[in-house]
Amino acid sequence: MSKHQLVVILDYGSQYTQLITRRVRELGIYSKILPGDVSIARIEELAPKAVILSGGPSSVYDEDAPVLPKRFLEYQKAKQVPVLGICYGMQLLAQSLGGKVKKAPVREYGRMEVMPAGISGLFPKGSSAFQAWMSHGDETSEAPAGFEVVARSQSGSFAAMENPNQKIYGLQFHPEVTHTVGGIQILENFLVNLSGIKPDWNMESILEEQVQAIREKVGPKAAVLCALSGGVDSAVAAVLLHKAVGDRLHCFFVDHGLLRHKEQERVMEMFRTQLHLPVTCLDHSERFLKLLEGVTDPEKKRKIIGAEFIQSFEIAAESIAEKVGHLPEFLVQGTLYPDVIESSPGHKHSMTIKSHHNVGGLPANLRFQLIEPLRELFKDEVRELGKTLGVPQDFLSRHPFPGPGLAVRIIGDITREKLDILRQVDEIFISSLKTSGLYHQIWQAFAVFLPVRTVGVQGDGRTHDHVVALRAVTSSDGMTADWFPLPYPFLAEVSNQICNSVRGVSRVVYDVTSKPPATIEWE
To answer: pLDDT tens digit string along 480-489?
Structure first.
């Protein structure tokens, strides 16, 4: 991605940091998240055209509060790199440049009216008051020398400040959140009008660059092993690799025993007839399930599955060597940017959400060189890339399915009985969504097996059976999500069908939690 003009987002622990990155990319500009304490040498190496400082939960006057990278202001002044601070980022700039930040007399949270005061390149000419999303308990009480306050909140506190001569800007509200009216326009004004960045981020150029990069890395002879899960990410990665290296790509689909109902048969047919990929199926379900016996911790489940996948690839590699005369040197994975962000934030002010099996579960002594052509992309960008590659839309519109499969949808230990129950419940739920025309309105839908038994009445007799949860969310990239308001008649019908058809289930609940505070998957 080095050919694109870059915007660096310095992360100070905000729940919206990934959203800033997405919004910048939506404007056709490549963006990348770095830890707030990254070295100035790393920033200089990347040579960004602009830098955005994220929000965060800290107070700038706390003893261990995150600070700007060492020598950042000297670098900014020397290079004249435009900087935008958002929420905590604005307060950090204010304090670092000689202004004052204090605890706000009234905490501002949620939708608030913001009133532009004076002329600013951040806001359209003639801007009137607009609704913006606030989330802060501190406020800038005194702007640094040379800065002008160009917007205030309805309570009178500073909502925006700037010093155009120094190319430094600050916003106390969050333009990246959809609740801020005209927020995308404000970001575009900063990036395009004030920073002079020309949008050059599009899937056609990314495809061309990735094909070239893959060919340079793999060389003219090496064999490449590709792990397919049946999901969109790994399939798009495989089609991309097939375009780059042709028949030297060897795809394997590993059945780890944690798949949905008839998933193996369905995905193998799809690989052959829709994607035209050469795929071998390895049924290693016995090994995976034996290793997972009695394991209840979700992180341990993910790491076991990740490590065992590597063992499966080692076996696949031996079979390839028998065919082509040498072991494959490369392993392809459909790792996405959110996987990397959630698994390894890389600094103390941002937490690991969960280890993704293809990030947190990889051994240090991996014998393959990894090829992860989607590592810098979000989910919707992968679908767009797949469309550019000619992958059928029906396949691209499939809901995401986690690499660890049903292991992270069974809360507690994994047994064959629970897997069988969950497969039946999930099949009823997903089939009903498709029949009712709701499937394509939803980003992801699935069932969860809960470690709970409740009393029920079935066939005039008392039961003490299992509880399952249904979940359906809308999202654009998986970084944030809202629960989907399924119609009550639909929920009633599905619940009735599950309880009548699936032996062992006597109660169905529906998850109405968004992300944040929850994650999409339960584990």
So the answer is: 789 999 999 9
| CATH superfamily placement of domain 203-396 | HUPs (3.40.50.620)
Angle between helix 379-389 and 232-245 (nearest 10): 40
End-to-end distance of the chain based on CA atoms, in angstroms? 32
Instruction: Return d(Cα 18, Cα 146) in angstroms, integer.
Output: 31
DSSP per residue, 44-63: HHH--SEEEE---SS-TTST
Label residue 390 left, alpha or beta by phi (over 0 means left) and psi (-120 to 50 means alpha): left
Active site (catalytic) residues? 87, 174, 176
148 pairs with which residues across the strands?
A: 162
Beta-carbon contacts of 74 under 8 Å, excluding residues fewer than 6 positions away, are none
Residue 515 has what DSSP assignment?
A: B
What count of Cα atoms within 13 Å lies in the side-chain half-sphere of residue 495?
17
Q: Which fold has domain 415-510?
A: GMP Synthetase; Chain A, domain 3 (3.30.300)
Judge residue 90's burial from the number of C-beta atoms within 10 Å of its C-beta, 0-12 exposed, 13-18 middle, 19 or more buried.
Answer: buried
Q: Strand pairing of 6-11 and 30-35? A: parallel
Q: Where are the beta strands (DSSP E) in 366-431?
A: 369-371
Which tens digit of pLDDT belongs to each residue from 53-110? 999 999 999 888 999 999 999 999 999 999 999 999 999 999 999 999 998 877 777 8
Judge if pTM exceeds 0.85: no
Q: List Cβ neighbours of 34 (8 Å cut-off, separation of 6 or more).
A: 8, 9, 10, 11, 42, 43
Which top CATH class is 6-194?
Answer: alpha beta
Look up residue 91 and give its two tokens. 């307060």
Give the residue from 15, 18, 20, 52 showing the smallest Cα distance to 36.
Answer: 52
Q: Which residue has the tokens 């937490």?
A: 351
For residues 145 and 177, is the Cβ–Cβ distance under 8 A? no
- For 497, counting Cβ atoms within 10 Å of its Cβ (0-12 exposed, 13-18 middle, 19+ buried), the class is middle
